[in-house]
Design brief:
Ferritin, single chain, binds magnesium ion, mainly alpha, 162 residues
């Protein structure tokens, strides 16, 4: 049985994962309408993945005697300066998500809830990958410069499932 405090924290995480999904969806649309089809594809897949994260939190909360709340989502930005600032935003957002998950892990320790602590380790590990792939893309973009943006957009297609 989950505590009220953890139920609240996980409901707030459901909101964040849902927002992540919509943020990446909005970024995908921007990429799609700016000739960056490979980047759009990467972002559409990422948006789906974030929705799955949200569903995992919903299911866990319901299974542990809590009740998930489907949140109203604030509108994400829909215009981005350029592809570099877009991926910097992805990285900053994922760092924010990592911190948020760490805070819930700290709460499970306070509440002596080892079940939730253990379950959350999937997301602790997942965030290593999320931060790493955003950082890798930023590094690539630095290397290639604007002239080779077309090549980058082809290259990112092979970067899923690493
Ligand atoms: Mg996520």
């Amino acid at each position: 049985m989950i505590s009220k405090k953890l139920e609240e924290a996980i409901n707030s995480q459901i909101d964040k994962e849902f927002y992540s999904s919509n943020l990446y969806l909005s970024m995908a649309v921007w990429a799609d309408t700016n000739g960056l089809n490979g980047t759009a594809k990467w972002l559409y897949v990422q948006a789906d993945e974030e929705r799955l994260h949200m569903l995992k939190f919903i299911q866990f909360l319901n299974d542990r005697g809590g009740k998930a709340e489907v949140p109203a989502i604030k509108k994400p930005p829909h215009n981005f300066k350029d592809i570099k600032s877009l991926f910097k935003l992805v990285l900053d957002h994922e760092i924010y998500i990592s911190e948020s998950i760490n805070d819930i892990v700290s709460l499970t320790i306070q509440e002596k809830d080892h079940t939730t602590n253990n379950w959350l380790q999937f997301f602790v590990n997942e965030q290593i990958q999320e931060e790493k792939s955003a950082q890798e893309i930023i590094d690539k973009l630095k290397l290639i410069g604007d002239a080779n943006l077309y090549m980058f957009d082809r290259d990112i297609l092979s970067m899923r499932n690493e």
